[in-house]
Amino acid sequence: MQITAASTVKDLALVPDPTSIAISPATIYHLELPPAAQLEGKNADNDDGELFSRLHWNGFGDADGACNFSLVCPTLEGNPCGSYGITITYSSGLVDQEPVVQAVCHAGRYYVGQLEPTHTATIEVWQHEEAADVSAHCYMWCSESGEAPTRPVSAEAVVTAVETNAVVE
Question: Are 25 and 115 in contact (CB under 8 A)?
Fold first, then answer.
């Protein structure tokens, strides 16, 4: 797996009622699941219990092009898509089409899609039952090509940098 250096890595907040933040094509967004104790009561059958992060795409300056996003979770521990889950929902860009919903169930798999200008992607985290061993680190980026910004480095280097607030070289 390749994630890049020399770009900004920003943490995404998970909250019950998020405001949308603009996606930058020069930023990698980091999502870390809170400890299981903070997820207690966040039940997928209860629409008021989930935690969310919401991002929107404004286009490439003067160009109104779509961005191609990737979401990958190098770490998904416990029982993803069983006792807890992460989903990403976004517009398909087609008129009269239902939004696309992708369940993030596999570590290391890339979940990809496209956002047209002014469209939004929502990341949702939920828990069905007590999940003692919940741990997940995910990264999302959006660019014209779909590639992560700048030169490649290992995912482990990015995780270490995020955890220590260091710059990845």
Answer: no
pTM of model > 0.85: no
Q: How far apart are the first and last CA of the chain?
A: 17
Say how many CA atoms lie within 13 Å of 157 toward its Cβ.
13
How far is the C-alpha of 56 from the C-alpha of 116, rounded, in Å? 9
3-state secondary structure of 64: coil
Identify the architecture of domain 10-148 in CATH.
Sandwich (2.60)
Q: Which tokens is 38 given?
A: 């903070």
105-162 pLDDT, tens per residue?
A: 999 999 999 888 888 899 998 876 565 567 888 999 988 877 777 644 455 655 555 5
Tell me, what DSSP letter sits at residue 95? T
Q: Residue 80 pLDDT > 50, yes or no?
A: yes
